[in-house]
Recover the amino acids of this structure.
């Protein structure tokens, strides 16, 4: 008898038994972790915020893995196959996620700044400089050096330091004085003395240009840190390239700074200031010229600037600006900001942007930030997504305002005697107004329009999933 045809959609089983599927739970979780870390490397999100997110939501990785396993189980039953085993590698990955997640969650709850050791704060540990290894493999020895030579009041001065702090102080003498405090990690006093001799700081001159080389690499593999304090006439133009903290005060000429892995303090400069930074905090106070900062710092504070301010790159933690007479521009992978001036203050963190005394024309394009602008003057063009917007105008006349948002609310407060033309629309939300506006509803959402006062500049408000409120203030 002929074998009947099998019209079943289920594939025939292997002679060795049902086939076993490959589990996708581990690869899915690894891909998600990789994307998470990539966001940190690309500075889309700061590492402190990524750490906080991981501390809060790491159990979601286990939930995702479980959902993938459940889906695989259901599909395997439907296909008449065996569900894939997790395997030892998967078990180890789950254990690692649990251990690391619990540890990061506990660390995220600790206020490290409040911890004390013997009545003092915990000592700083810089893993990037190799000093921790130096504590294990050698003793620390201290050396000092002093240099001094004449310098013209209108000369230029350059500093190059690979490891150590640089402090610039101003004095009235037409001389340069350098005081070096050196720390050397070595196996013996003899080895340290030899390293000291090969890492002597060097002054050089070419015309009116004077250079200082801290020469910290002269000892080869022996770690050398040279902290230099430099006394200069106020009018000498200054250029510094250093890997370490930099402090410059009371200058009457331009300042150019390139910093890596160190904090920068720049105060009381009669001239322009140009900074290239990588990590560390930046504080720039009381500068009469323009301020330009390139690179990504941890925290940035800039205040009392008579010129313009331009920032390219951003900050991992926050940016605070105050009292800037001329224009302000900021550009990062996530935010573009342009101000004509800043009479008050502006603070920007990962999920918040707050400005008080913002002078237009102002342009802001960002996402995932709650935005609050108070005492706005002049024109305003504001674009955002996934964050509420609050704008308060207190002075007349009202400038041209254009606000576009997505997936969040918009609240605009205008003076009671404001004069402007209002057009507002939300596709999935409500509109509330203290002014006599014509509010209509349709399948496409709600819209409001009208002229308040004698008319004037245009107020355009648009959002999709969010409410619009227009208040008198």
């Amino acid at each position: 008898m002929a074998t009947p045809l099998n019209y079943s959609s289920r594939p025939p089983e292997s002679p060795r038994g049902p086939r076993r599927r490959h589990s996708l739970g581990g690869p899915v979780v690894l891909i998600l972790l990789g994307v998470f870390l990539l966001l940190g490397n690309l500075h889309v999100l700061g590492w402190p915020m990524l750490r906080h997110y991981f501390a809060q939501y790491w159990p979601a990785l286990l939930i995702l893995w479980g959902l993938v396993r459940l889906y695989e189980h259901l599909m395997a039953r439907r296909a008449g196959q065996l569900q894939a085993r997790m395997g030892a590698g998967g078990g180890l990955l789950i254990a690692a996620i649990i251990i690391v997640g619990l540890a990061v969650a506990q660390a995220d709850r600790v206020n490290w700044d409040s911890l004390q050791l013997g009545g003092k704060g915990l000592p700083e540990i810089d893993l990037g400089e190799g000093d921790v290894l130096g504590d294990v493999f050698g003793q620390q020895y201290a050396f000092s050096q002093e240099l001094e030579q004449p310098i013209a009041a209108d000369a230029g001065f350059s500093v190059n330091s690979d490891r150590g702090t640089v402090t610039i102080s101003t004095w009235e003498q037409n001389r340069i004085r350098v005081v070096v405090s050196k720390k050397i990690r070595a196996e013996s006093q003899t080895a340290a003395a030899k390293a000291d001799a090969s890492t002597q700081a060097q002054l050089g001159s070419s015309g009116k240009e004077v250079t200082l080389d801290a020469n910290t690499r002269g000892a080869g593999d022996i770690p050398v840190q040279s902290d230099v304090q430099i006394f200069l006439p106020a009018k000498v133009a200054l250029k510094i390239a250093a890997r370490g903290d930099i402090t410059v005060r009371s200058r009457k000429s331009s300042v150019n700074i390139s910093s890596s892995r160190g904090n920068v303090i720049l105060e009381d400069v009669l001239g322009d200031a140009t900074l290239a930074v990588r990590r560390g905090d930046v504080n720039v106070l009381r500068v009469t010229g323009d301020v330009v900062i390139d690179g990504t710092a941890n925290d940035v504070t800039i205040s009392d600037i008579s010129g313009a301010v331009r920032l390219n790159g951003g900050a991992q933690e926050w940016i605070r600006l105050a009292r800037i007479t001329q224009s302000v521009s900021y550009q990062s992978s996530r935010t573009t900001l342009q101000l004509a001036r800043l009479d008050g203050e502006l603070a920007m963190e990962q999920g918040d942007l707050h400005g008080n005394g913002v002078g237009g024309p102002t342009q802001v394009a960002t996402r995932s930030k709650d935005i609050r602008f108070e005492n706005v003057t002049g024109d305003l063009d504001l674009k955002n997504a996934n964050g509420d917007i609050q704008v308060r105008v207190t002075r007349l006349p009202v400038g041209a305002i254009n606000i576009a948002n997505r997936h969040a609310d918009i609240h605009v407060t205008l003076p009671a005697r404001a004069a402007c033309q209002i057009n507002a629309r939300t596709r999935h939300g409500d509109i509330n107004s203290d002014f006599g506006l014509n509010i209509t509803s349709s399948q496409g959402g709600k819209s409001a329009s009208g002229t308040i006062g004698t008319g004037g500049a245009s107020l355009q408000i648009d959002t999709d999933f969010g409410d619009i409120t227009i208040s008198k203030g």
Notes: Residues 95 and 429 are 45 Å apart (CA to CA). Confidence is low (pLDDT under 50) at residues 1-17, 111-137.
